[in-house]
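Memo to structure team: turn this sequence into structure tokens by end of day. - J.P.
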Amino acid sequence: MFNLVIGIDISKATLDATIIKLGSNQPLHDSFLNKNLGFKQLINWTRKQQNDNEHILFCMEHTGYYSQSLCSFLDKQKLDFALINPLLIKRSMGFRREKSDKRDSEMIALYGIRFQDEIQVNNLLKDEILQLQLFLAHRKRLQKQELGLQKQDKHLMHCLSESCTKVIRADIKSLKAILKARRLKIEKHIDELINQCQALKIHFDLLVSIPGVGPITALHTIVYTHNFTQIDQARKFACYCGVVPFKNESGTSIRKGTSVSFFGNKTMKSLLNFGAMSAVKVDPELKKYYNRKVEEGKSKMAVLNAVRNKLVHRMFAVIKRGTTFVVKPVF
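Reply from structure team:
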């Protein structure tokens, strides 16, 4: 039980902090710089408000890189902190008339007081996971630029004569070569990182042994599960990826059946979708399952979503078992 909750609204340059004590309606607010000096001042300010035997929790929205330095500082100081999904905080606020950094920090602190039994504490990415996440994000940016140039080149070739587009297409070709070289360099760094860290290497090899789970899907799964330490159940991760169907019913008139939720990790859902389409072609067991369900009249997308779920459960099964996946022949 945390008696003192500090809600922190983080921006690029500043931190707005509000302290709320359990059972008190008198919040205290102050602002600090989003740098090491400001972090020390925040801790000193907090200590002045703390009584003996009071447990402190620092709550903040998950704002990506802006919160990383503060979380690392709190982790080194052995202080409890929590990164919370901004949508959860927004939905808990009700109607709001005021929007300011001070008010936002107060709302974050109130959320921490009310829902502290549901908050996951000290969920900081380890250095190797953070580095892997940065590599994957940069690789995705390079790949997106490559595809953009490829699409532009295709349109020029299709719509205009060669004499008009010769210079531009030559430049596009050279840019594509540069981007490809940089992407391959990043992929080499990813391979080196995986090989250097034994814990990542073991889980990566187990995951890619599953038909339909490629290297990129395996790497993203490792990142989003914090190498299977923060999310350790297949059902939770399937829900996180947005591949679990939920009911939509109310009373006797609304019967919309089941469908996947809009809330989910779009990157993982996309990767699992491509993996499922591949798995039903190369895996005999899933291929037979897919064909049987389609022949029974099931929607192809519904069956494909079931295959996504099966891939998720297979990933967690091989990690839990510690052995590679074995493809079973189907007779």
